[in-house]
TrEMBL record:
Protein's UniProt name: FAD dependent oxidoreductase-domain-containing protein
Lineage: Eukaryota, Fungi, Dikarya, Basidiomycota, Agaricomycotina
Protein origin, superkingdom: Eukaryota
C-alpha cells in the first residue's frame, strides 16, 4: 500500500501539467450488501480526499460506497508525455527481443526486469499468469466520475477519447480477443448502474492480459532488479515500485 501512496502523490503532482494527461476527478467505489469488500485502502488515502456516501447518494443496488478524489491517467496522453521527458534527459529507446536475462545482464551494469507475463519464460516463474480483461468503449462525455465495484467486477472510466466500461476477470485465459457475449454482459451491468449509458454509442472494444502474481516480485538478483507481477494495478503501484527499484540500484 505504501507503493500506492507514493504513486498517488506522484500523479497528483503531475496533474498540475495539463500536457501530462492526468487530472484529479471523483471516484465512487461501491460494494453490494454481503460482498465482503475490504476497506483497508482507506487508511492509505490522503487526508480529506474521501467521504462515505449515504442514502440517496448511494449508487443503485449498492449498500456501501465511498467517494474519493483520485488521479485519472489518460494513458494515451501520459505515456507519450513520459517518454518525451525521458528522451529529453538523454534516454534511448531500443526495441529488441530478449530471450535470456543472463545474456543481457552482461551487457549492462543494471537491468530492470519489467517483462510482465514474459517473466514466465525469462525467469522460469510459473507463479505469474494471465488474467484476461475485456472492456467496451462508449462515446465520451459521460459520466463525470469514475465508478468501481471490485466484486462484480464493474468499472466505468470517463476518458477523453472514450468512456471505458469493464470488465471481466478471467484467470489463466491467454486469448487476447474480445467475446461479444462477454461484452454484452459487461454493458448490461453498467447500464443497470448508470442507465444513461444506454444513450451512448458503442465505439469499440478491447481485451488485454493482466500479469497477475500472488505478490509483486520486486527484488535484486545480482545486477538484475525484478519488478513484475502487478496484475491490474500497474499504474496504481508504478511510481512507488519505481522508487524502490531506484533504491536497489
Amino acid at each position: 500500500m505504501e507503493w500506492c501512496r507514493k504513486s498517488y502523490t506522484f500523479f497528483k503532482e503531475q496533474s498540475a501539467d495539463r500536457a501530462s494527461g492526468i487530472r484529479i476527478i471523483p471516484l465512487i467505489k461501491a460494494a453490494k450488501a454481503g460482498a465482503g469488500d475490504e476497506d483497508t485502502w482507506i487508511q492509505y488515502m490522503p487526508a480529506n480526499s474521501l467521504r462515505e456516501l449515504a442514502g440517496a447518494e448511494l449508487p443503485q443496488g449498492y449498500a456501501k460506497a465511498f467517494e474519493a478524489q483520485v488521479p485519472l491517467i489518460e494513458t494515451q496522453l501520459f505515456l507519450p508525455y513520459l517518454q518525451q521527458q525521458l528522451v529529453d534527459k538523454g534516454v534511448s529507446f531500443v526495441q529488441r527481443e530478449i530471450t535470456d536475462l543472463d545474456g543481457i545482464s552482461q551487457e549492462y551494469d543494471i537491468v530492470v526486469n519489467c517483462t510482465g507475463l514474459g517473466a514466465r519464460e525469462l525467469c522460469n516463474d510459473a507463479t505469474i499468469f494471465a488474467v484476461k480483461g475485456q472492456v467496451a468503449l462508449l462515446e465520451p462525455g459521460y459520466p463525470d466520475h469514475i465508478f468501481l465495484d471490485n466484486q462484480t467486477p464493474s468499472y466505468i472510466v470517463p476518458r477523453k477519447d472514450a468512456t471505458i466500461v469493464g470488465g471481466t476477470y478471467e484467470e489463466h485465459n491467454y486469448d487476447a480477443h474480445t467475446v461479444e457475449e462477454d461484452l454484452q454482459q459487461v454493458l448490461a451491468k453498467a447500464y443497470h448502474i448508470m442507465p444513461a449509458l444506454r444513450e451512448r454509442k458503442i465505439i469499440g472494444s478491447w481485451a488485454g492480459l493482466r500479469p497477475f502474481r500472488q505478490s509483486v516480485r520486486l527484488e535484486r538478483e545480482s545486477n538484475i532488479i525484478h519488478n513484475y507481477g502487478h496484475g491490474g494495478s500497474g499504474f496504481t503501484l508504478s511510481f512507488g515500485c519505481a522508487e524502490e527499484v531506484a533504491s536497489l540500484v
